[in-house]
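Deliverable D4.2, example record:
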Amino acid sequence: MKTIKIQLAILFLLTFTLSGFCQKLASNQKFDFKSKNPAEWTLVLDAVVAAPKNHKILLENDMVRVLEVTLAPEEIENLHHHKWPSVIYLQEAGEYIDTDIDGNIILDSRELKEPLKLPMTIWKDSEAPHSVTNLSKTQTIRLIRVEVKQ
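Output generated by the structure prediction step:
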């Protein structure tokens, strides 16, 4: 248990130093909820409920939920949200697009100034409903997402 706490502490430390790296978030994201408060978002679109094929719970307790996230080549994940902020350890990825509930592009990896240098660790705030499309014909997207419960 002590080892897990140390590993999480190291992961968080790395995350804060890399915070915001390679992220391009839409400032006008639309929510399909009456509330913009993630704590009030519907459970129906929770990542594990709405996109269970892509989100596997590795660990969950009162403090965190650790997810293994995978998207096969050319796969489109179901619309879902992440109500807790997260540390993401991106292990593998080719080109992909992340879209909001209305199909607007939040991030297109092909438009980044430089290719992603993987593996990489980033911080993400709560994410409104979105869907990722893996554009690669050969590369699986693989990441570990540590959702920090508040």
